[in-house]
Amino acid sequence: MQAILTFNLKDFPRETVKSYGLDIVNPDPWRSGVVKQHPAEVLEVLAQLLHSSRNPPLLRPDCCTSLERLGLPTSAAHLRTRWAAED
Known about the structure:
The protein is built from five helices and two strands; from the N terminus they run E-H-E-H-H-H-H. The protein is mainly alpha-helical. The chain has a domain at 27-86. A two-stranded parallel ribbon has the order 1-2. The chain is elongated, with a radius of gyration of 16 Å. InterPro entries: VapC50_C. This is VapC50 C-terminal domain-containing protein.
């Protein structure tokens, strides 16, 4: 099934969207699933992004805090767990 990835549920009524063969997916569980299924790839991309941030430099905790502010607390928690396992 195809899906719309959005926090904006009010503009995409589930029944209307289903009539088009689509589903509505919240970004946080979806992104968390990507982190769980492809941790090495996700961590590598994030490492490159963190390394390239210069002004101001972005650290791992800052990245997780930003994700939480964006409404992705589960994703941030998974990343914290993965990074803690590396240290």
